[in-house]
Every structure is written in C-alpha cells, then in structure tokens.
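Q: What would this complex look like in 3D?
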Amino acid sequence: MSRLSKFTPLLYILPAFAVILVFLILPMFYALYLSLFRWDMVAPSQFVGLRNYLILIQDAEFLLSLLNTAIFSLGSIVFGLGLSLLVAVLLSKKIRGLGLFRTAFFIPYIASMTAIAIVWRWILQPRGLLNLVLNSAGSLFGAAPGEIRWLQQPGWARVAIIIFIVWKTMGFNILIFLTRLLDINPSYYEAADIDGANALAKFRFITWPLLFPTTLFLLTISTIFSFQMFIPVFILTPDGGPLKSTSTGVFYLYRTAFNNNLFGYACAIAYVLFFIILILTMLQKKFLGKKAAYEG
Amino acid sequence: MSKKAAKNRKIISPRVMIYLVLTAGAVTMVFPFVWMISTSFKSSLEVLSARVSLIPEAKKYIRVEGSREQVEFALALEMEGEVTRKEGDIAGRIGGELSGRAELQAELSNTFSDLRLEIEKLFRHRPPEDIREASARLGEEAVRRLRASGIPEVLAPDSRTYFLSRLLSLRENLDRLADSTPAPGEPVAVVILAGERRGEVISVAPGEVIRKRFLWENFKKAWQAAPFARYFFNSILVSSLVTIGQVLTSALAAYAFARMKFPFKEPLFLLLLATMMIPSQVILIPNYAIISWLGWVNTYAALVVPFLGAVFGIYFMRQHFETLPQDLFDAASIDGCGRLRTLFQIVLPISGPVILTVSLFTFIMIWNSLLWPLVMTNTPEMRPLQVGLAVFNQESGTDWELLMSASTFSILPLLIIFFVAQKHFVEGITRSGMKS
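A: Here is my prediction, written as structure tokens for the whole assembly.
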C-alpha cells in the first residue's frame, strides 16, 4: 500500500506528461528518424541514409532562405532593439500618460499576426498608405513622387518584412526593457549626478551595463523568432516573395512538406534549422554572456 | 531659487522632445489599426482612388435592378472634366515658359486641383439643383486667383492672351453647366461608377440618390463572403477547450512538483524544462504523421489534444504553488482533506490571478496560431479563424475594404480582452519573459 502510494503523485503529472511525451518528445526523435527517409506519405518510405542532408547543404533555395533569415534577424535586431531601447528609455523618464503610451506601443504585439499582416499587405501596396505617406513627406523636401513596389521587388520585399516585424514586436521588447529600467536603483543615478556625469555618460556607464542581460535575452528571442517566422511571409508574400527573396527556413520547410510532399527532406530541414538555432543561442551566450557578469 | 528656475527652464525643452518622439512613435504604432478601420467603411472605388482620407468620403448610390451601385452626378463629372481639359490646354501652351518657376507651376496646378476638390465638395453635400449660385462663385474665384498669381506677368504676350482667354472660357463653361442644372424635383443625370453598367448615364429622381459615408454593410459582406461564423465558433471552441484542459493538467502536475515527494521528481522536471528547447517546426511533420496515423486529420481532436499539456503552464503554476505557506496544507491535512480535494477546494480558489494569466496566455496563443491548424485542417467547416482569414486573404486578393472589415472583426475581440485584462497580461509577460 505504502509502496504504491509513493507513486500516486505520478498520477498527477501523468495527463500533462502523456501529452508532452506523445506530441513533443516522441516527435522530436521521430523527426530525426524520418529525415533519413524519402517519404511522400503515400508510397512506402525508402531509406536514404544521410542523402537528404547532403542534398540540403547544396540546395540553393534552402541556402537562400537561410540568407533571408539572417537578413531578417539582423535587420529586426538592429532596428527593432535599437528603437525599442530608445522608446523604453524615454518612457522611463517619469513622463505623464505612461500607461497610454505603453498601451499604444503594445497594441501591435497583441493583435493577431495573421489579421494585422493582411492590414500591412494593404499598407504596402504600390498605391498603399506607406507610399502615400512617403510621397507626401518627400514632397516637403521637393522630392519627386515615386512608387516603391514593396512586395514585388526582392530588396524592398525584405525591407517590408523587416518593417513589419519591427513594428509588430517592438511592444514586447519595450515592455521587457522598461521593466528592467524601472528596476534600476535610482541611487546609482544620484551618485552619478553628484559626480557631474551627463545624460550620455549615465547611459553609457549605468543604464547600458545593467541592461546588458536583458538585451542579450531579447537578442536571443529575436534570433529565434526570425528563424521560426512563418506568418508574415505566408500572408505578405504567399509564394515566398519575388525570386524567393522572403522565403524563410520554416516557410521553405512548410512548402517542401505540404506543397511538394517531401516529408523526409522537410524533416532534415527542420533538424538543420534546429541545430543552427541551438548553435547561435549558445554562441550568443558564450561571447556576449561574459560581459553579462557585470550585473547590478 | 533663481538658479533652480533656470535649471527647470533648461529641462523643459528636452522634455518636449521626449513627448514629441513618443507621440510620433505611438501614432506609428496605432495608425495601421485606424487605417484598417477606416478602410473597412469605404467603397471599393474609394479604396482604389489612392487618396488618404481617414474619414471615409460621402458617397452616392442608386438602386439599379435590385443591386446598389455607386454613382456620381453627371454634372459634377462634366464640370471636373472641363477643369481638367482647361488645365491640360494651359499647361501644354505655357508649361515651357514656366519651367524654372516652381512656385508659379505649383500655384497653377494647385488652383486647378483646388477647383476640382471644391466642385466635388459642392456636389457631395448638395443636390445638383441647388448648386447654381455656388458653382458660379467657384469659377470666378479660380480665375481671380490665377490672374493675381503673377503667371500672366512672366508670359510672352501671345501666351498671356491665350492663358486669359482659356480662363474666361473655363468660367463661362462652368457657368453654362451650372445653369443647366435641373429645377428642384426634376430628374437628375447620374453616371454609374462601378459594376457591369459602369459608365452608363441614367436619369433618376433626386430622391432616389442615397448618400452614405460609412458602409457598415462591408462587415456583413465580408462576414458572408466566407464562413466566418463557423471560423469563430471553431476558434472559440478549440481555444476554450485547450485553455481549460491545459490549466487542469498543468495545475495537477504543478501541484505534484511543488508540494509532493515522489521518485524521479527532479529528473522528470528537468526533462520537462528541456522540452522547452524543442522548436515547434521540428515536431510539425512528425506530428502530422502521428495525427494522420490516429485518423485525426481535420478533426477537433487534432487541434485540441496535442496542446493539453504544456511546460509553460506547469512551470508558471509550480512557481506560484511553492510560495503558498505550508500551514495551509497542514491545516487541510488535519481536517482530513485529501490531496486532490486540497488542490481543487483550497489551492485553486486562492490562485485566481495565476490561473487567469496562464489561461489568458494559452487562449491567445491557440487563438492566434496559424501553421498548426493550417496543416491539420483541410475543409472550411474545421478551419479556425486565423486559417479562414489567411485563405480569405488569398482568395479575395484586392477587395481591400472586405479584407479590412474581416481583419477588424477578427482583431477586435482579442483587443477587448486585452484592455479588460491588461494588468494580468503585462505582468505575465514581464514575469515569464524575465525568467525564461
């Protein structure tokens, strides 16, 4: 009886654990297994060993989707984190209407990605809002009106995706930065004031070092987000953009599996993406994490 | 004291800058939503007109064979056409002489576009039979403005004569057109602007012209263009089932991990945490194979069951359960309250905020997910809202007013939930965000 009751707590974790086992842990290994096969879900699968991986590293479309992903992460990190930090610092200055501003910046993050991406597809049309706004801003400086074909030209399509991601995820970044900023002990700044430090010096020597772990965290999140990005690409450029210029890893995986029925190959894509994310996350921790030791 | 005042004055201007930057940013964040709502109320013609108007324009309609068509008074179009013709004449003749005089060129084209705008405004608010006097004044004003603009002075004599004669002819023609307006109650000529009979001029009684600014029926049209009622039903059902199920299984597991001793407790918890590293795309295809094997493709089971256990919920609730005082559990145990009853009758009732946060996150995550239900469903009856919306996006390519209406009614429910529960939401994100 008592030996049995020792195990009763396991019954509590069983429901959740069973689901996690069947739909998370098992598929993880199953994907690795499937990646060694050629399989279209109709004909019997055919063992091909590491062939899928060998083909993959020479697959131009896959390599392009990795390049696109790299561009998206870099763009969204540089602009997204930069702007978010700026706004968060401004919001932390004991301003009036903080709640109102915070809500305004946060709304895009709340809105469903699919619906709001459709709104941006409308804004990014050749005669859409963005071009109209740019043209009227340009006319103030005497620039001739033009028409950027945001979603039809490879370069601009990438810029469009970055603009959308930055706009969509800024609220989250700001919230995380702001929470940390408001946690910083004000006595640091008071001490700096006594030493006669200016605003820039205070940011450089107090705010920035203390924010570093937060920045690192957001950097990792942004990188992972870019690698897993699917909805913006699927809605804004349903076929992967002009010359596949907006196709990301996950988007390519989706098309490979569900449009071309190459399920084994798609699993190989999934695993390679997984390892790239893993390595990037560890590299970021290793190289940037050292500095994070300077924590207050 | 005066030193302090001086210091305060210096602070004011950076503060103004801060507010300016923040306001500009906030407007950029919110404007796409405003634009979405504004577009939902417009007509398809207005959407294509490439004019930025936040408040939809007033539009005129008549009923033609049961369906409603947007129309414009023929007279208004004739008057605008006359303005455009004269502008073309004048620009063609004197454009060369004005090159290099940017301000005069701008004045020329501004006057003509202002005139067109005035005509449009005039007809927008008043019936044609009522505009005689007002339109005469318009032509007069435009001619006076162009004469005084300094343009005649820079022109060669014969160009100047031509310019002035065109202006006079413009005014005369506008007057003549205005004089041809029908008497009150008489039929007016309208041009059909869209649809199969586009371009046709018909004569209707003034009372038949309907004026509208906000096209509420766009929402109805969008709602009926795809089975959105079904999509909503599916999304509400699936998100609710997952939320309830996940909170239950998470609470049970979290309770065991927080307050019980059992074999392999630590390794099991570490295993759970490790699964957080598994990206969703890795398991998508094997899961599709598993779901197919179970015969669950295109069923609610495929959308609900795989999400009935989640590490996030367990982790979050365990943290909370660990902070509860041991006395609570001792007292329950002394009163003869079993472990399961303690969980449901004592622990959960005092854990409202945590349950709410976990529920909110789960609900929103499931509600917003696209890739999984896109892969797992293949008929409209089983699609949740996001998939339905994505399909609608591909099928109705450029019916922007309908796409924006659909986006609006898809986004609003969640925004309302957010505003009601904003505090929990923000706390949840900062807590889970900082700790992961």
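A: To summarize the key features: Chain B is about 70% helix and 5% strand. The first strand of chain B starts at residue 59 and ends at 64.
Q: Very helpful, thank you.
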